[in-house]
Write a structure and sequence with these properties.
The chain has 90 residues and is of the alpha+beta class. The protein contains 1 helix and 3 strands; from the N terminus they run E-E-E-H. Strands 1-2-3 form a 3-stranded antiparallel beta sheet.
């Protein structure tokens, strides 16, 4: 899924998930940043069950301030968790 400037993480939900949770109500497995043709893009990975992975892409700065804050928090958490030298983290 690619988010466009008019999309809001606070308004979007996943109808295929029981309870129709909004995107911000789910816990991403990982949030990272990619560089595509000199542009940064957030890559949000959700794993609603053991059979599906959902990738969401968003350009930093295009969302609402609430969306950007949530993305920045999730990105920071992912970076800390995935850069850990603890056994089991890669």
């Amino acid at each position: 899924m690619v988010l466009e400037p008019q999309d809001s993480l606070h308004a979007l939900y996943l109808p295929m998930i029981p309870g129709n949770p909004k995107l911000i109500e789910m816990w991403p497995e990982y949030v990272g940043k990619l560089t595509v043709e000199d542009h940064e893009v957030y890559r949000i990975m959700l794993m609603p069950d053991n059979e599906r992975m959902i990738f969401i892409f968003s350009v930093p700065g295009q969302g609402t301030s609430e969306d950007e804050e949530w993305l920045a928090e999730q990105y920071a958490w992912s970076e800390v968790t995935n850069s850990s030298k603890e056994p089991g983290f890669h």
